[in-house]
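Intended use. Records like the one below are meant for learning the mapping from a protein sequence to its folded structure. Do not use them to infer anything beyond what is encoded.
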Amino acid sequence: MTRYLIRRVGQAIVVVVGVMILTFIMVHMVPGSAARAALGVRATPARIAAFNSTYGLNRPLYEQFVSYTGQLIRGNLGTSFTLQQPVSALIAQRLPRDAILLGMSTVLALLIALPLGIYQAVQRGGIGDNVFTGVSFTLYSMPDFFFALLLIAIFSVQLHILPPEAPQAATVAGILADPRALVLPVLTLTLVSVAGFSRYMRSSAIDVLAQDYIRVARAKGLRERLVLLRHVLRNSMLPIVTVLGLSLPGIVVGAVIAEEVFNYPGMGLLFYQAATSHDFPILLGSTLLVGVATVIGNLAADISYAVLDPRVRYDSA
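Structure written out for the chain above:
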């Protein structure tokens, strides 16, 4: 396991560096001017030249990348062009808010998707399976922004049950103090994630139910509930572990859309605003953070495989 972890950490470093290089190039290829976006359309050529000189935007791209890499090694993610604050401070302020939104929605999605997938596998081909399959495909194919607007139209505009805007507090305690305003953003991300997780869980549970040890457990007289909990659930979760690690970028993308629609003051909204204003430091810092989180998620998924399935031994591989 130790050799495997060392090898994976080395691969992770290569992946993160590759993501950083590609993001740096693509961000600087976006049409438009960062100076014009930060200073306004009436900025004089002299002010634009001074802005580019201050942030090194008038230098060749490779020199800018070398300078940015040097700052990154020292733990400096740069300063926001528009907000004039360190990117690390902005991330530190907003990351806990994202942890609440993404954490709650992901946990709820798994709590719903795991038993739902097993139920569909047990009732394969039945009315319940067909109904939930249709609902899952509908949710899975529906764009996040459209689903968020649909929830606002139903629960806020028509029924007046829930507020259309997410909590605007600056602290975690303030956000949690307004749970009604959290319902729609969390519900949006939860239901979209449930659609994908439940399909994987259903397919995995169908394969497990066909295994010989399930037949043996039933032949010994073990209750169906215990068969599902002890044997089907645990062995069916292996693909979900991988999917969960790989779906982190998709969940984050969904959070960007949901935070913009519901005006939630998290990393997603910060990233969206930075993209519209050509705020390169925020875009680079946010993308780098997501890349690192994705690599860590995949590594955690591989380690979880060994925990859930004792037959998996990476050293022997």
